[in-house]
Specification:
4-stranded antiparallel beta sheet, alpha+beta, 116 residues
């Protein structure tokens, strides 16, 4: 999905949050469907583990903007956030709540008419 799609369909009217969400979806798809490295299986779920500098570098956002965006996505129940150790260092782990994202997109699209 395009960043604009997340911006429009999830009801999150913040481009920075949409940028982060689009990358989380991309990474989550990579680790769950293609077996790409970067995913960590813990507590029965697949997690994306990145520190604040890695999130900022990947998104082009500042550390503060990344912190705010993850808080918004967590508050909207689109991601789950846990701080867990990775190689002995506390690291932010994110898990995409795919069912909640699908519901948000479905609700936003429910009244849309698609031209053919």
């Amino acid at each position: 999905m395009r960043v604009a799609t997340f911006y429009e369909l999830t009801g999150i009217l913040d481009v920075k949050v949409a940028i982060l969400l689009s990358l989380i979806v991309y990474w989550y798809q990579q680790i769950t469907t293609r077996g790409s490295q970067g995913g960590i299986f813990r507590n029965g779920f697949m997690w994306i583990a990145k520190n604040r500098e890695q999130w900022a570098a990947a998104t082009g956002l500042t550390r503060s903007q990344c912190r705010r965006a993850t808080a918004i996505l967590n508050d909207k129940h689109l991601i789950d956030i846990k701080i867990m150790k990775l190689d002995g260092t506390p690291t932010t782990h994110l898990r995409l709540l795919t069912e909640n994202l699908e519901k948000a997109v479905s609700n936003a699209c429910g009244d849309m008419v698609i031209a053919s």
